[in-house]
Amino acid sequence: MNSFKTIQPFSIGMGDRFGHEAQAQLLAITKARELGITVTPVWNKSNREHTLIGTEPSDVLAAALGAIQTMGWNDDFHIDADHINLTTVDRFIPASDFFTIDVADYTGKPAKAEDIQAFIGAHQSYLNGISIPGIAHPLAFTESLLQSTAEKFLWSMQEAGRIYRHIAEQKGSHNFITEVSVDETDLPQTPAELLLILSMIAREQIPVQTIAPKFTGRFNKGVDYVGDIAQFEREFEEDLCVVSYAIREFHLPKSLKLSVHSGSDKFSIYPIIRRSIHKHGAGLHVKTAGTNWLEEVIGLAEAGGEALELAKEIYTLAFPRFEELVKPYAPVVDIQRQNLPSVAVVQGWTAEQYVSALRHDQSCPGYHNQFRQFIHVAFKIAAELGVKYTNALKKHREIIARNVTHNLLERHIRPIFGNE
Questions:
Q1: 148 CB contacts (<8 Å, ≥6 apart)?
Q2: What are phi and psi of 83, to 5 degrees?
Q3: Is 34 exposed, middle or buried (0-12, 13-18, 19+ CB in 10 A)?
């Protein structure tokens, strides 16, 4: 493969919907360093979020650079063009140096018959089984599995190659990091399918740095993991082993690592992830986008007075637009409108009640899982409020920043990457 930019072993994707929390986020990274945890910051924002809020990728870069200058940061950082495809990538190319190529829209579209047959032919030796260090039993492959995996993923990985080459032509292959995302497909990938997908990526000569598979269970936005934790642990460890094997087998970059999407607030599986990456000496990227927006709303509610009224107004305006706000995120939220508190109830909440409902503290009797998910997808309302919302962020910067830093450091970085 040609020269390419590499990523550090541990990195965290930090979403910042409105571009006001970069310094608070970077403070969490610097505090982690003081604790001996080296994590590279990656500010990420998707095309959908830019469109809803009315921002550009250059705004993400500007916010990050402002924080970096203010805090004297002199280490690596990245700007992630999150979940892009060939129709959306161009607006990101000047400002971004990390591109998350999302192939969900292309998965299942068949490649040319001759390409499928060539792929199957190149992997006939796999029919004898593949023994991968760390996995108890050899991975089993059949003609049917080769066929079905090629039919489902080959064309989408070819599209990933086209997107990668499009970016490389404009930026130079040594100036950006490539992630390939298959986490928004319909079913989790088995370790055998993941190995075949990595083979497809290698055949496209993509110097992939992170791969985001779909795991078993629900990775809903802003709330804890829902699923069989023991099964997740087996899958996660096996995927780590597959990635390590694929690096050697397909001559992929040695820095290739797993990426966990919708990774914020998955508290029940963080101990598993931490144990596994340290056990295998593996790297990891985790995306935590929307949890920071929620901390802004928590901070406003906590501030009380007119800031609390603004937090209530966001819910009041969002509630009658339930279908519109939830629809784009339907695969990654579980919200029933009838289970949400009424507008009248929320209007009567104290600051403590609002914060208790929204803050992700499952031991708190007032915590409301579905309320939290709904506020998570309601950032469009805050965007429509414009300067009324952003002026409130400025006015209450101190209390919001404290929440953002604490959430990122204590609930995410330390549990995921720490050695304790």
A1: none
A2: 55, 60
A3: exposed
Question: Across-strand partners of 11?
Answer: 40, 285
Place of tokens 């495809």: 85
List the Cα angle 35/418/102 in 5-degree steps. 120
Calculate the CA 404 to chain-centre distance. 17
Task: Give, to the nearest 10 degrees, the angle between helix 22-34 and helix 57-71.
Answer: 50
Q: Where are the domains of the chain?
A: 10-108+151-291+409-417, 293-397
Distance CA 266, CA 238 (A): 19
Res 1 pLDDT > 80 = no
Could you tell me the pTM of the whole model? 0.97
Q: How far apart are CA 84 and CA 94, in angstroms?
A: 14
CATH architecture of 10-108+151-291+409-417: Alpha-Beta Barrel (3.20)
pLDDT in tens, 36-90: 999 999 999 999 999 999 999 999 999 999 999 999 999 999 999 999 999 999 9
* Residue 68 identity (one-letter amino acid): I
